[in-house]
Amino acid sequence: MPSYDYVAPSTLDEAVGLLKQHGDDAHLIAGGASLVLMLRQQLLAPRVLVALRGIEGLGGIETIPDGGLRIGAMATHRMIERTPAVRQYAPALAEAVGMVATVRIRNQGTIGGNLAHADPAQDPPTILLALDAVIHV
After folding, report:
1. Are residues 42 and 16 in the same domain?
2. How many Å apart are CA 40 and CA 20, to the nearest integer?
3. Which of 66, 74, 123, 129 is the S-S candidate for 59 at Cβ 3.0 to 4.6 Å?
């Protein structure tokens, strides 16, 4: 596996700054479920990995006043699958993420990473589209 620098910013502004600084040489890493495999297979060769795990506020799930949900990019599939509010307001999403790989992968993989990976065979993006979800980047 090629070498790279692993940087763990503590704020979103710091992460954005690192992406701007390194441009195409940088990749974000969320849970790493897909990215680590791609690195091992040498399908990607970033010089810098910018880790999102330590940035507070990216992983929560909360209800919002209109009866919807706000799901952070770092929310794991398992967290989404098991959160009562998701099961109540978006049961199709809870069910779809409950079918992603194995429990170990669901504990590691994130919804943000899943969307960023953009694998057309994944169910969560389709479910989010069907639910009229709004994604903020």
Report:
1. yes
2. 25
3. 74
Radius of gyration for the chain, computed over Cα atoms and rounded to the nearest angstrom: 15
pLDDT digits (tens, 9 = 90+) for 55-93: 999 999 999 998 899 999 999 999 999 999 999 999 999
Residue 113: name the closest of 77, 87, 82 by CA: 77
Question: Domain containing 108 — which CATH number?
Answer: 3.30.465.10
Distance CA 61, CA 80 (A): 8
Residues 123, 33, 23: CA angle, nearest 5 degrees? 100
Which amino acid, one-letter code, is at 4?
Answer: Y
User: What is d(CA 34, CA 40) in angstroms, rounded to the nearest whole number?
Assistant: 10
Supply the range of the domain harboring residue 98. Answer: 61-130
* pTM of structure: 0.90
Element (H, E) at 42: none
Is 135 part of a structural domain of the chain?
A: no
Q: Helices then strands (H, E): number in the chain? A: 8, 5
